[in-house]
Structure of ABC transporter domain-containing protein:
Amino acid sequence: MIEINQLQKNFGEKKAVDIEKYSIYQGDMLGLVGNNGAGKTTLFRLILDLLQADLGNVTINDIDVSKNEDWKQFTGAFIDDGFLIDYLTPEEYFYFIGKMYGLKKEEVDERLLPFERFMSNEVLGQKKFIRNFSAGNKQKIGIISAMLHHPQLLILDEPFNFLDPSSQSIIKHLLRKYNEDHHATVIISSHNLNHTVDVCPRIALMENGVIIRDIQNENNSAEKELEDYFNVRVEEEIEEEKMEMTVQETAIQEVPVQETPVQETIVQPEEKEEQA
Ligand SMILES: Nc1ncnc2c1ncn2[C@@H]1O[C@H](COP(=O)(O)OP(=O)(O)OP(=O)(O)O)[C@@H](O)[C@H]1O
């Protein structure tokens, strides 16, 4: 179980995360949604102790993540391709990760089998380093490596990014199955509302660092609420843009009036020079 307690992270004046209290239970499949800059990645980084909180803390199974390392044994995460080791091949990387968790080479091979369709003959046996893979295939390598040791807690930041439609569909299925088979806690963030609603029975909506809604999603029941929320946001932004345009137009119309005194000030010095 993850407990977030009075957690705050600021970047200068910006409150990136400000969560009074939030609990994520073992076996939850939670989707984190919110506009750009809402604080999703910062929250993930705080949960994974990649960032130091200004206030408050995160505990995983009663372990304060910033004070004790035990949670790392049962946690898997992929936030961005900074997690990868560029100069290894995918195989070398998977075996390396496996070794960290005491898995033999054969066990790693066996655990890669369910990902065969996901990798679609483009990841294994390519004889090239991770740095030379496409963004989509790097994303696949990162997701698989986070799941390889069968963590009880899996955190994926924007797992559908860069993936082609069929890979998006496969990973949705794999994540759901993983959550069910292992009774694992799975937390993903996404801008794809359809995928989030398809996969996550619980959805947290973030705005300005705060979880403003905690939505139970049964049979895609959250779809309308989320669509309404994000459409409202878009409409508000369009309204704001219109207001800005009106202000700019007014300013443009006023230009000739403003130009007259400017011309006068140009003429005046010349006249003065002539007089001199
Ligand atoms: N290292 C940093 N230095 C300064 N500001 C940061 C830093 N990391 C994040 N921020 C700011 O904190 C806020 C939250 O950013 P964050 O990346 O967590 O949002 P997000 O919800 O993941 O956004 P996106 O959907 O665009 O990925 C933003 O205003 C961002 O600019």
About this structure: The first strand starts at residue 2 and ends at 11. The longest helix spans residues 222-253. The pocket of adenosine-5'-triphosphate is lined by residues 11, 14, 16, 34, 36-42 (CB under 6 Å).
